[in-house]
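Help needed: design a sequence for this.
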């Protein structure tokens, strides 16, 4: 995204979610630009910790727990024709993990906002009021474990997918998370092309007022549990 953020071409800027506000690195106020620079450096630090330290540790812990509890998936790394998932099985397992992950994320994310003892960690993520891709992994380590790691562990443990399905699920979650925080609502984004897909601006709205839209990639749980209350009011006023 760096070239797109840098060149500010009208073709891309027409899809900017907050068009009335300047990007913080272009703000006329020096203190705003300095604050963004400091925040960006913090994001690089947190992202490095979460992806290169916490994620491997959680993966190792998941493997260990699976072996100890007897829930280890014996077919995960078998690549012969007998164990390779069929197209239908792959789609079913992938879809199941996406829905389970989304449910887990909705619950843990709302908990992070509901309880002050948890929000003190989650508020780090809300240091971004206007998102860039740097915000995607800008989480306190405790927040990363609870609201990012736990839903993924739930989905993977429940479905027990083959490694190729797990790889696709991992790519999905990473791309969708980046899309949530890109700052643009690109119509060609592949994570928004299917039924029940949530709009990119929903998560931007969540960051801007810190309320509602607790889900991420799907609209189903926001619709079921009232997550669109404030978002729909905004949409109604804008019409």
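Sure. Designed sequence:
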């Amino acid at each position: 995204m760096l070239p797109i953020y840098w060149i500010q071409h009208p073709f891309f800027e027409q899809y900017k979610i907050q068009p009335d506000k300047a990007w913080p690195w272009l703000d006329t106020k020096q203190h705003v630009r300095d604050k963004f620079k400091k925040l960006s450096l913090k994001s690089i630090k947190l992202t490095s910790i979460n992806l290169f330290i916490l994620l491997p540790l959680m993966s190792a812990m998941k493997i260990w727990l699976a072996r100890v509890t007897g829930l280890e998936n014996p077919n995960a790394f078998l690549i012969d024709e007998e164990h390779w998932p069929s197209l239908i099985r792959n789609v079913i397992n992938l879809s199941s993990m996406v829905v389970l992950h989304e449910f887990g994320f909705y619950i843990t994310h709302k908990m992070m906002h509901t309880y002050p003892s948890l929000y003190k960690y989650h508020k780090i993520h809300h240091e971004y009021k206007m998102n860039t891709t740097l915000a995607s992994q800008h989480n306190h380590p405790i927040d990363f474990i609870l609201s990012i790691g736990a839903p993924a562990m739930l989905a993977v443990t429940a479905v027990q997918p083959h490694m190729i399905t797990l790889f696709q699920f991992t790519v999905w979650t990473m791309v969708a998370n980046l899309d949530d925080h890109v700052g643009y609502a690109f119509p060609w984004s592949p994570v928004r092309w299917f039924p029940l897909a949530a709009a990119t601006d929903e998560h931007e709205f969540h960051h801007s007022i810190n309320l509602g839209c607790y889900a991420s990639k799907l609209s189903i749980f926001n619709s079921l549990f009232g997550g669109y209350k404030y978002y729909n009011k905004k949409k109604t006023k804008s019409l």
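The chain is about 60% helix and 0% strand.
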